[in-house]
Amino acid sequence: MLKNEDSKPNHWLTAALLMPTTMWFVFMLILPLIVILIFSFGERAAVGGYAASFTFEQYANLPSRLKAFQNTMIFAPIGTLLSLFMAYPLAYYLALRVDRRYKFILLVLVIVPFWTSLLIRTYAWIFILGGRGIPLMLEWIGIEGVRLVNTPGAVLIGIVYGYLPLMVFPIFVSLEKIDKNLLEASNDLGGTPFKTFMQITLPLSMLGVATGCMLVFILLMGEFLIPAFLGGGKVFFIGNALVDLFLQSRNWPFGSAVSVTLVVIMLITVSLYMRLTMRTKTGRDESLM
Amino acid sequence: MSEQDISESPDIRFVGVSKWFGDVVAVDKIDLSVERGAFFSFLGPSGCGKTTSLRLIAGFDQPTEGDVFISGTSVVGIPSHKRPVNMVFQNYALFPHMNVADNIAYGLRQRNPKPPKQEIAKRVDETLELVRLSGFGKRKSWELSGGQQQRVALARALINHPTVLLLDEPLAALDRKLRREMQMELQTLQREVGITFILVTHDQEEALSMSDRICIMREGQIIQSGSPRELYDEPVNRYVADFVGKTNFFNGKVVTANKSSISINSESCAVLVGVKSKGAPTPKIGSNACVAVRPEMISISAADEKDNHADIVIKGHVKNRIFLGEHSEYLIVTEGFGDVLVLSPKTNESNRRIFAPGDHVSISWMPEAVLVLEDT
């Protein structure tokens, strides 16, 4: 039949179109992961790097990096929540309140920082938070002895600054997709603006909130730049431990073991999180389409 | 204001209400009042200000000037959640994350204090029954058909016993047959609950069939308001005559005019005599006027037949005939009057001839059937 004749070449086309992506994932993601997994059971060679072996020694040594794991597991959720609380009002304003004429300009302004590398922008924060930045200005108005840089607070400021757009956009999209008639209907039925927000706006934007939190959380788990710059060695993440292990002490097997552990922790947290958010909004996504 | 005053004042009153969006006027100094328990319609093409008028009542927009009263109390500045009116939206606006029962209960749950759970459940069941959706409470709103969603939207508004129910093109998304059914249902429902209904529609048939009173709007102004029959039989101008039902128009110069009748000289030099519309001013002799004849007021006969009762007889031939079930529409090409639409009921066809395209016929009507209108 005609349909079968049509579908055959389409299979080839589909395969051909998916080929580059597949190759990329196989060679750039799957294979390296396998390599790291193998390395993690090996030993450090005398000159650094990897020496073939099969031992659980590296995993037994994990507690020596406990502080890095703890910091990551504390700062990633807190940073995610802080970004959420900063991003939601901004997204809400952009999606529902701002005049149509300025919406585009304001959205562009949210993205503009991305045109400069995060490295440079984070570097700039060292000066803003450093001795001749905000603390100096505070001195002018009589508040002395404020230390900002190389504190947990500085790391959180850096995190919120760096990841805000990633949180703003998914929430903005989900808020803008809400039929404005629903909000009017709620008002019309006696819902005060606050109740309308709690009962209609917030539940209908949860998909964007979940997406934004996921994006920021996953990236924060692997973050190393911000703690390195703004934490000044006092606040270090797993990412910093990895940089240290692979590049400085050249202990590849231990670094691999830490990486594998991080991947496992991430998989568990993310799948739990997915399970949780999926359950609360089954069916709703279909209706939003 | 005393109880007596409130019960006697109309449910909705507009006094010199205007609404500007930037430098565009959506509603232009309108005055109107809607009596308690009426089924009232705003009728007009899109952009005529009818939906804006409805939103001014609902409280989604505030008037730029003028005053809006609900039950005799000015509501200008009062937000929508404090107004005793409820709206059925064109796209129904059902909350997608709630089931049917929760959608309907929404209004009750916003009250302060919140009614007890059992009472809410009982009222929801009653309202579901009212809109013939018993047993649908647990369904998701997006699982329902368009007609069912429409009824949920109605139930969600009616459960609050509003003073006025606002309906914004509620039937526009339904197919023709379902729309007919819902029109009947809405009328019955309105009588049952005794609430004032205010409908916005661009569909003249819908407005004519359901409303007690219709307000025809154009460019933010009220052109005419009255009962469906008044609008149909005594349109104040050509716009209304054209908007409400089908009409044949003839343009010409006024030859004679007195209080009740007018004759005009058409392009073809024949003289048409007509009865002046009640509201219309007496036109000056020599000025342009337009006469309108409703297609069902014209009778059609074979060219050689003589109709002794009719004063106005025009000859022509059949160009087209459309069979529409209960009646037929003929398009007649006349000598000097252009194309004329004639509506012939089926009862006439059984004992009269059915004409085919090309047949020579004469069409005739009584002078009372002719309306002379302002040509606007």
What structural category characterises the helix and strand content of chain B? Answer: alpha+beta
**How many individual domains of chain B?**
2
Distance between the termini of chain A: 34 Å
CATH homologous superfamily (4th level) name of chain A = MetI-like
Lateral arrangement of strands in the main beta sheet of chain B: 6-7-8-3-9-10
Helicity range of the residues of chain B?
25-40%
Radius of gyration of chain B: 25 Å
Low-confidence stretches of chain A: 282-289
Subunit organisation of the chains = heterodimer
How is the CATH topology of chain A named? MetI-like fold
Percent strand of chain B: 25-35%
Helix tally of chain A? 14
Biggest sheet strand order of chain A reads 1-2
Count of separate structural domains of chain A: 1
Q: Could you give the topology of this structure?
A:
The complex is a heterodimer of chains A (289) and B (376).
Chain A: H1 2-39, E1 43-44, E2 50-51, H2 57-60, H3 66-97, H4 100-111, H5 118-129, H6 134-140, H7 152-177, H8 180-188, H9 193-204, H10 206-221, H11 225-230, H12 238-248, H13 252-280, H14 284-288
Chain B: H1 3-8, E1 12-21, E2 24-34, E3 39-43, H2 50-58, E4 65-70, E5 73-74, E6 85-88, H3 100-109, H4 117-130, H5 146-158, E7 164-168, H6 176-193, E8 196-201, H7 204-210, E9 213-218, E10 221-226, H8 228-233, H9 238-243, E11 248-257, E12 261-266, E13 271-276, E14 288-293, E15 299-302, E16 312-323, E17 327-334, E18 339-345, H10 346-351, E19 360-365, E20 370-373
Parallel strand pairs in B: 3-8, 3-9, 6-7, 7-8, 13-20
Antiparallel strand pairs in B: 1-2, 1-4, 4-5, 9-10, 11-12, 11-14, 12-13, 14-20, 15-19, 16-17, 16-19, 17-18
Helix pairs in contact in B: 3-4, 3-5, 4-5
